[in-house]
Amino acid sequence: MLSLNDLAAKLKEIDGRGYKAYKDIQGCYRSGDSLLYIDFIQGDPFAPPSRVRVRVPMSKAGLPAFLYQERRQTALEDLLIRYVKRNINSHYKAQPGLKKMLMIDAGQQQVLKRSSCKVTPDWVEVRLKVELPAAGRRILGRQAYEILGPSLFGVVEEAVVFNPQRKQEMSEWVYLFEDQEHIRQSLPDLGLVAFVANGSILARISGNSDLPLPNAVAFKSPPSMEVELPTIHHGLIKGMGLPKGVSLIVGGGYHGKSTLLKAIEKGVYNHIRGDGREWVISSNNTVKIRAEDGRRIEKVDIKYFIDNLPGGEDTQQFSSVNASGSTSQAANIMEAIEIGSDLLLMDEDTSATNFMIRDARMQALVAKEKEPITPFIDRIRSLYEKHEISTILVIGGAGDYLDVADRVVMLDAYQVYDVSARAKEVARSIESNRLSDVKDDQLKYRNRIIKKVQLKNSSRDRVKVSAKGLHTILVGQEKVDLSGLEQLLDSSQTRTIAECLANLERYLVGRVSFKQLLDSIYEDLETDLAQVTSYKAGVHPGDLALPRKYELAAAINRLPFLQIE
Ligand code: ADP
Ligand code: MG
Predict the structure, then answer these.
(1) For a pLDDT cut of 90, what percent of the chain falls above it?
(2) Whose CA is nearest to atom 5 of ligand 1?
(3) Whose CA is nearest to atom 19 of ligand 1?
(4) What are the tens digits of pLDDT across the range 128-146?
(5) Lowest mean pLDDT across 74-88, 389-403, 447-461, 549-563
(6) Do residues 399 and 467 share a domain?
(7) Which numbered atom of ligand 1 lies nearest the CA of 219?
(8) 312 pLDDT exceeds 90?
């Protein structure tokens, strides 16, 4: 076993030499009981950074077991990552150049399962990226030792070695996460699809900032919808329970409708204390649906919504490389249902009008036989009544929807009112005069079987799959655009999705349906995020976060080389 002195000696020896000589420091070094693994060395100063791990034995870390039992583990790991990040920032405050070179993938407003920290009963491991320092292409050995030497152990150990003074903060952190999960799991038994606690702050600073808007109007449930949910550590929590069924969010423009819907959409994730959305919890199977002109569709059965196209195309196996607003929205719904969604969220702002509604006048002018689209308004009830798929819909303009709603909440200057009774009255007294456009009431969707995912180019080389920011995955020369996925949160999730895509063929053994494919990928992801990757055993990608099934499925559905049977 090598020591830090050995590392110092090696770095001294290669100081000033060409960058490639950094390869010499690959290996494992001991400092006290802790280990530094230098797993991967970048090829040149501008290549993706090097990867290292620091492993601290639990005998030294001394983390009480209750902090990482069962689902608390994800929360504890997330917190330790934040501690490491904070330590890096404070340790290198006076050396911003060095600070930039040491990176850990940490969470922001939400807590996700991440690969940058792993806690086991035997050890805690922190995975970091390092840009090994150079002057031009010459190795800066002394600087490298300043990053990789004792100070790295210090930064990590200070974070992961249990400090009794932090016990309260740490338990509160894991208890919050546990109760958020607890509420989410109890929603179905309570007949609810979403919950928004009183006092929540839903508005964000801006479109680009996920931080709470200062001085925002706090959420308060209308009395008729107030429920009290029991928790394990936080007593009863009061707020608005949104029952299964069809719910509308109405109100004037700029009164906070989309803000409420967006909070529910992100309620599939657990938020950190102080975020304002800690107790906004929605069903695990919530999928935000929108129109997404231009997306690719591969043999999706959208007949439930679109049939009798003038070109005679088969809408039971509808494919397109450039879908329209309505076909894309229909495909988004059918694909969500295929994976098991039980709650669809839609905002009129981002929906295709002709997909949502055909009013009485249009029905009079254009015969039913001439209109391929069965608008969502004519499906929304049977989706719920026959298939238990609920919808929450933001509606500002299309009042015909009052006929199909189980409840209607109104936003007025950011305050929520239950206007269900009044809405019924309005629907009765002002008739919409529209007729149902339903032709055939059968919701059919195939369990699509994946024929092939062609990940080789014309010269039979494997194409490279890589994530670029939050919303783009490059597959060879092709771009997979994920900007329609409003519940994709973190570019580390996108990286995981890219890894899954790159290694998809591994999971395509025999005849595999879409759903089976996702289940088998998730079995691996939930065991260990690295399992889906092609990294060598031991070498750990420290920059992955767990995506949801729905976003992974959406990326596969948009793959240029996907072929469905
Ligand atoms: P709508 O969808 O009804 O047109 P939005 O949800 O887009 O309205 O909200 C309009 C603006 O009001 C946004 O800038 C949003 O951040 C802000 N806002 C929303 N809810 C609140 C609130 N509770 N307190 C303060 N500002 C809010
Ligand atoms: Mg809006």
Answers:
(1) 81
(2) 256
(3) 256
(4) 999 999 999 999 999 999 9
(5) 447-461
(6) no
(7) 23
(8) no
Model-level pTM?
0.95
Whether 456 and 520 map to the same domain: the answer is yes
d(CA 204, ligand 2 centre) in Å: 14
Rounded to 5 degrees, φ, ψ at 466 are -145, 150
Please state the atom number of ligand 1 nearest to the C-alpha of residue 206: 16
Q: Above 90 in pLDDT, residue 446? A: no
Task: Out of 198, 200, 206, 254, give the residue to mutate to test ligand 1, the one with the largest number of ligand atoms within 8 Å of its CB.
Answer: 254
Q: Whose CA is nearest to atom 27 of ligand 1?
A: 203
Q: Amino acid identity of 392?
A: I
Provide the mean pLDDT of the chain: 94
Q: Is the CB of 123 under 6 A from ligand 1?
A: no
Nearest ligand to the CA atom of 348? 2
In terms of Cβ atoms closer than 10 Å to its own Cβ (0-12, 13-18, 19+), residue 564 is middle
First to last CA, the chain: 54
Residues 331 and 456 in one domain: no
Provide the pLDDT for residue 452: 77
Nearest alpha-carbon partner for 118 in 71, 76, 88, 169: 76
C-alpha 196 – ligand 2 centre gap (Å): 18
Residues 6+ apart with CB under 8 A from 212: 201, 203, 204, 205, 274, 275, 276
Q: Residue 84 has what pLDDT?
A: 98
Atom of ligand 1 nearest to the CA of 347: 2
Number of separate domains in the chain: 3
Quick check: CB of 277 below 6 Å from ligand 1? no
Of the ranges 49-53, 169-173, 521-525, 528-532, which one carries the lowest mean pLDDT score?
A: 528-532
What type of residue sits at position 344? L
Residue that terminates a domain, selected from 117, 141, 162: 162
pLDDT at residue 420 greater than cutoff 90:
yes
Predicted local confidence at residue 80, as pLDDT: 98
Q: Can you give the pLDDT at residue 311?
A: 86
Question: Could you tell me if 548 and 422 lie in one domain?
Answer: no
Find the domain containing 344 and state its range: 286-429
Task: Please indicate, yes or no, whether residues 293 and 146 belong to a single structural domain of this protein.
Answer: no
Residues 411 and 464 in one domain: no
Ligand 1 lined by 212 (C-beta under 6 Å): no
User: DSSP strand E in 364-510: where?
Assistant: 390-394, 407-412, 415-418, 450-453, 465-468, 472-475, 478-481
- Same-domain check for residues 92 and 151: yes
- Do 368 and 413 lie in one domain? The reply is yes
Three-class SS of residue 234?
coil
